[in-house]
Amino acid sequence: MSTSPSSLGATVAGIGEVLQLFRSRPSLTRADVIHLTGLSRSTVNQRIELLVGAELVVPSGEGTPTGGRPASRFTFHYQRGVLLVADIGATGMRTALCDLLGNVKDERERAIDVAAGPDPVLTAAHVMFGELLTAAGRTPQEVFGIGIGVPGPVDFDSRQVVSPPIMSGWDRYDIPGWFADKYSCAVLVDKDVNAMAFGEQRIVYPDVRQMLMVKAGTGIGAGMVLGGEIYRGADGAAGDIGHIQVTVDDAADEPICRCGNTGCVEAYAGGWALVRDLRAAGKEVTTVDDAVALIRTGDTAAVRLARRAGRIIGHAIADSVSLVNPRVVVIGGQLARIEEQLFAGIREMVYRRSLPLATRNLQIVATRLDNRSGLVGLALLLADRIFAPDRVEALVAST
């Protein structure tokens, strides 16, 4: 991130904003901070001393001489503590230990059933967190924050899952409260595909300000980056394209969706729906991974269903493209592994249904971060929240 002195000088007024400069650059001298902010030398010295005292900034060597003594360089103390994140899916969970910049340092994966309820799933996450801390030689006291991604709608401000179709027992459950007696730190809760979108945009497409991330896995969901920030909507319900209702010409009846409605995109094209239809066709599949493996073998019936699913998902994406005009649409989740069979249908529908102006420069691509996008996005969202300028003042005051 590059910032001009003229734009920053008028806005940097507190210690929190100064820390943002160190978080976004490898290292800075006092003169660099003066140049970037327009603040006086005494003010910059005072703020750097406070950040050093709070162990948020540390000396990193010597800079280029400026007519006398070498100018001391400082850097963000990203190893002072760690972040713990858990990307919870319908049937599996990935956890990671990250540094304070949000870089994933170690990770774990295990099968879970999110419908078993919050206590067994969060207990599993806690056990995995303990394994990660032990392997890194860290303690719970060094955890600055915990990030939890879930496959359901989230009221971001209250950090609660609200009326999730597949998460029995999770509605309004106090996830931060569950961790309160185990870790003394901030807990962030967000929809899994929002985290995926943020990770993909920040790491793979940092110059793209408008992006749509579609997770095609057991269910179908989307996260939107608008103006470089996650767009959650007024109540956190933005991006729920899996429950857009569609008319499918070759369907005898509208299938019942897990949300209770009929004819939803997910009820036709979600991973669970593919498993349902493949089993009805006499195929021996039990999981979404089984369905993906069968499709990749070239099985005629499985490939036909995959291409049909692509067209149905493409119908919902086309509506989203017309509405928000993203530059890039990224497809992730288990079904992204059948790119050859799925993407042709998606592209067909998007380019047929969306306006030419909205698709003129549009890219429709598979995820580059694969199944790590949720972990990466959670860590980056968590780091940004913990070290937001308005929170740094309190963090410094508490040390």
Task: List descriptors.
3 domains, single chain, alpha/beta, 15 strands, Nucleotidyltransferase, domain 5, about 400 residues, 15 helices, Arc Repressor Mutant, subunit A, 5-stranded mixed β-sheet, disordered N terminus
Summarize the structure.
This protein has helices at 5-9, 15-23, 30-37, 41-53, 118-136, 175-179, 192-203, 265-269, 271-280, 288-296, 300-324, 339-353, 356-359, 373-386, 389-397; strands at 28-29, 57-62, 72-76, 82-88, 92-98, 104-111, 143-150, 154-155, 160-161, 186-191, 210-216, 220-226, 229-231, 328-332, 363-366. By secondary structure, the chain is α/β, with parallel strands linked by helices. Helix 2 (15-23) packs across helix 15.
